[in-house]
Write a structure and sequence with these properties.
The structure holds 2 protein chains of 2 kinds. By secondary structure, chain A is an alpha/beta fold. Chain A is built from 6 helices and 11 strands. Chain B has one domain. Classes of the chains: A alpha/beta, B mainly alpha.
Chain lengths: ~210, ~220
């Protein structure tokens, strides 16, 4: 299965009336990954947010399965998982509640045992009933990665996924991403570190 | 439809884990309604006349206290991004949040109002009418307030801006809400006022989630 799935044509983003980077075009097939690079302020986050549909592209087109994303939003959003700088987790809720809630928002049902298992694999087995505010930054990040693990989305859009993770968690994340790619998923990420997710990785550098 | 109940349940659970915020507005309402009769003095005729107005103003201000927090928490921790990227209808989710806001801010006022109304020597029918007018009026306040909260999300000094935006829209609710009780007291009958409150509630319920969704998308742009 190597049909074109995500197609970005001549896209650019604007901030304050000024284009952040020269227009980019790329195609992401099933089973491929893309590492988005660029200096600080080059527009990586802006591009990722626009590609997900959180903001709009100032120019260019975005196709999902050959159709403009604006026409197939609901299908697209069911297939996209976005993890940005803010994790979208509630400090007052426990890791388990957070995970189930996020799954419900993403349109999938997740049983407590499946959620517990995913958290256990992230090394949070004994802490899944504690409110999130007592966990460390890295542990919160791991809860967010547990979300990734239970996600059924085909396209994963990750903004700096390695931030605040220790070496073991970084390895676990890399393994998770490799499995996703092998199963025909797609991955689009930014990172200032290198992340080895296999051969099918393209690199795109945003130029001003 | 499930996502509606999920959101209501989530917001109620969050509120239960930080009770201070919810109690804040309820406590404010109780304090305002209690201080007025103490300051004005024990003259039943006067108290009876100002009672409905004072209670309604108190309820309106108490509702406004919690408005700026309606979407702010979700905005700050990124949950709002996930709501926007959800395949579910954003309007339904927003309606869930508005409902939760009303259950936490509006319903306690409806329940407390008759007890507080006793301090103003209101008759039994007037107390019932006060509750009914609040029951119909506070959801309008939540719906309209939510639009203001969505529009001012992420703006510095948003709290003051919300007041400026929604206060003019709250005025008709206040006039007809307090008016319903006064009309009943003066013997005219409150049917017209109640009908108008209901006529404000239905479009507010219908249009508010839609307007909020648009506001939230702009805020996150």
């Amino acid at each position: 299965m190597s049909d074109v799935v995500l197609q970005v044509l001549n896209a650019t983003c604007e901030r304050g009336g000024r284009a952040l980077f020269a227009p980019v075009s790329f195609t992401l097939l099933a089973g491929q990954a893309m590492h988005l690079q660029g200096d600080n302020g080059a527009g990586k986050t802006s591009l990722l947010r626009s590609l997900c549909g959180l903001s709009s592209l100032s120019q260019g087109q975005l196709l999902w399965l050959g159709q403009p994303v604006s026409l197939v939003r609901e299908v697209f959003w069911r297939d996209v998982f976005y993890l940005g700088h803010a994790l979208g987790l509630k400090d007052e809720l426990s890791a388990l509640e957070n995970l189930q809630l996020c799954a419900a928002l993403a349109g999938q049902s997740l049983s407590a045992s499946d959620a517990g298992q995913a958290l256990g694999e992230q090394g949070l087995g004994g802490r899944m009933h504690l409110p999130l505010r007592v966990l460390s930054q890295g542990q919160k990040r791991r809860v967010a990665l547990a979300r990734l693990q239970v996600s059924t989305a085909r396209l994963w859009v990750l903004d700096e996924p390695l931030v605040a993770l220790d070496a073991a968690a970084q390895h676990a994340l890399t393994a998770l991403l490799q499995t996703h790619i092998q199963q025909g998923g797609m991955l689009l990420f930014t990172s200032h570190q290198s992340l080895d997710v296999g051969n099918a990785m393209q690199v795109l550098r945003l130029q001003p | 439809m499930n996502i509606f109940f999920t959101l209501v349940q989530r917001d109620l659970r969050l509120a239960m884990r930080r009770k201070a915020e919810v109690l804040n507005s309820v406590f404010f309402f109780v304090v305002v309604a209690t201080l007025f009769p103490l300051a004005i003095g024990p003259e039943p005729a006067m108290l009876r006349q100002i009672g409905p107005g004072v209670l309604w103003v108190g309820a309106l201000l108490a509702t406004m206290l919690g408005l700026s927090r309606m979407f702010e928490g979700d905005y700050r921790d990124g949950s709002l991004e996930h709501m926007l990227l959800s395949p579910h209808s954003l309007g339904l989710m927003v309606l869930g949040k508005i409902t939760a806001h009303w259950l936490l801010c509006g319903v306690p006022l409806v329940i407390l109002a008759p007890a507080l109304g006793l301090q103003f020597d209101l008759s039994e029918e007037a107390l019932w009418m006060l509750s009914l007018s609040l029951l119909l009026g506070t959801p309008v306040l939540s719906c309209v307030g939510a639009i203001g909260a969505a529009l001012t999300l992420g703006v510095r000094g948003g709290g003051i801006l919300i007041s400026l935006l929604v206060l003019p829209l709250f005025v008709p609710v206040l006039v007809f809400g307090a008016g319903a009780v006064q009309a009943l007291e003066s013997g005219v009958g409150a049917q017209a006022h109640v009908s108008i409150l209901l006529a404000m509630l239905l479009p507010a319920l219908f249009f508010s989630p839609w307007a909020c969704s648009a506001g939230l998308r702009i805020a996150l742009e």
